[in-house]
Every structure is written in C-alpha cells, then in structure tokens.
Amino acid sequence: MDAPPKSARLKVELAGVALESPLVLASGILGVTASSMALVARHGIGAVTTKSFSLEERAGHKGPTIVAFEHGYLNAVGLSNPGWEGATSEICDFRTRFETPIIASIFGRTVEEYPLIAERAALALPSLIEVNVSCPNVAAEFGAPFEADPKTLATITASVKKAAGKIPVAMKLSANFGAIGRMAKVCADHGADVITAINTVGPGMIIDLNVRRPVLSNKVGGVSGPCILPIAVRAVYEVYKAVEIPIIGTGGVASAEDALQLILAGATAVGIGSALAFDGVEHIAEINAGIGRWLVEQGVGSLAEVRGGAHEPR
Ligand SMILES: Cc1cc2nc3c(=O)[nH]c(=O)nc-3n(C[C@H](O)[C@H](O)[C@H](O)COP(=O)(O)O)c2cc1C
What we know:
The protein is built from ten helices and 16 strands.
C-alpha cells in the first residue's frame, strides 16, 4: 500500500525534523523490526519510534506480559530488545527504504550506560534519539526510574546530548512522579531538544479473581490506552507551561479528537501506541483525516496555529 496523500495542514516540525503528519509511533509498539515499522509508515505515520534498546540484548519478563481491561492495557514487557547491534541494523534497514523519520529509543541499566548507547544509536543516523528514563515496570531490577531524581535526570540529559552529536535528543518522561513541568525544565536546561510525555502510568496491578493472584508475571505493570488520556493531556499542559522546546504528547490517543486535545495542551507531535497495536494501523489514516477535517472546519491553515491553544496567551 502507498502512503496516503499528503496534506500541508498536517505538517509539523520537531527540532528541525520535518514530519508529514503529527502522528508518531510510540516506542515499544510495532517498533521492534524494520518490517513492523514499515507497516506503520505505509499507513501515513509522521515518524516511527523504535522499541527502547540497551547495550546488551534483554529477554524481558516472563509471560503474561500484557493484559487488556475495559479502558486500557497493563504491560510489563520488561524492556526486551535485541541489544544495540540488532536494533541499529533495523534502523539502517528502515532508513534505506523509507523517508519517514525514525526515532531511536534508548535506555541504560546505569547512568553511565546512557551516553554509550547514545553514541552507538547515533551511528545509525536516526532523525532523533529518544531517551527512556521513565519505564515503570522494571523497578524490581533497577529501582526507581532515573527521572525520579533531578540530578540524575540532568546528568543523563547532558551526557546523551554530548554523545548524540548533531542528532536532536528527546527526553521521555512519565507522569508518575508529580512535577513533570519541573522535570521537563531540568531536561531543557541540560540540552534536551524535545520532551516526550508520557510513558505508561503506574505501576498498576490487575488481579485474577479465579486464581486470586496478579495477572502479570511481574505482578505490576504500566497502564496505557484510553484511560490515561486525561493524565497525558494534563502532563503535556504542564510541560508546555514550563519549557519552550517541542513536545511529543503521548498517552491514550485513539481518535483525532484525542490527538487534538494533546495539541491544544501544547504538543507539536502526538505519539500513539496501544491504539495501533490493539485496534489496527488503519487508525492512522482515520486520525490524520479527522485532524485535517477539524482544521478545515475551524478555518485554520496549520497545526502550529492551534498548538497550545488551551492556554492563556504566553
Ligand atoms: C506493550 C508496550 C510496550 C512499551 N514499551 C516501551 C518502550 O520500550 N519504551 C518506551 O519508552 N515506552 C514504551 N511503552 C510506552 C509507550 O511508548 C507509550 O508511552 C504509552 O503506552 C502511552 O501511550 P498509549 O496509551 O498510546 O499506548 C510501551 C507501551 C506498551 C503498551
């Protein structure tokens, strides 16, 4: 299938990277191989993000790792990935076949590992490097996510930025530690070019009444899908107030209306994960069309004109 027709209204720019649509494939979902990212790219996504990768290969948690509930999903995949060599070879493969910008998502087991992975990720020439410091489902192994401590967040941001060279850096935060605006400011002050908000919410737990035990083998996991949209909208609103750098607003998006809420809160681009994985990649074209229709109805020529429109003028 060819990519759907392009619309000037949907174009956005993220730290110098031109996107044909504001929609971005969120990390961890369909971003493991070049062919799964290709599927998403063919349906008109603005950019794809890889699953977060580390220096070494990781198996992740034992199954079950994902469970659906009425308004969302709980997952504890546990950052399974092929390691930097496998992941960067998928990035290179994707880049040779598609013009769609690709975002390399990285994470480290220690603060010191972050710049080492960023250096290796940069070799694959992604459009952006996204730094996952906010995964809520590996606490048993790593302790609290690195975002929880402002000094650590500052150190990781500055070291990745240096290691990434000319490639812009997005810091991915969650709404799990309160003051996300302050955390975003720490990142921006230490060189971040973009903030991605939010990672999954939690950790959360679902208990199976039949066996009277948590459903996930890891017991706890991160919550995603429609139920987290209001949390994501609030988080993006706070980040927009705190920093001037662009935001990839992510969390609970399943429709054009959801995406537009994040844009009015201040997002330049909109990440989508669960809705694509569980409801189908066909949603991308529907959401693009819905955003385009809304802009026409409102008599607005570009997304930049409505970005942050839910705020008092800056
Ligand atoms: C199964 C699954 C795996 C995920 N893996 C990652 C990951 O590797 N790195 C990351 O930064 N976020 C990861 N996320 C979080 C998503 O990128 C996104 O921030 C979150 O799911 C909220 O968006 P959504 O409601 O559209 O899914 C994962 C989410 C899910 C559901």
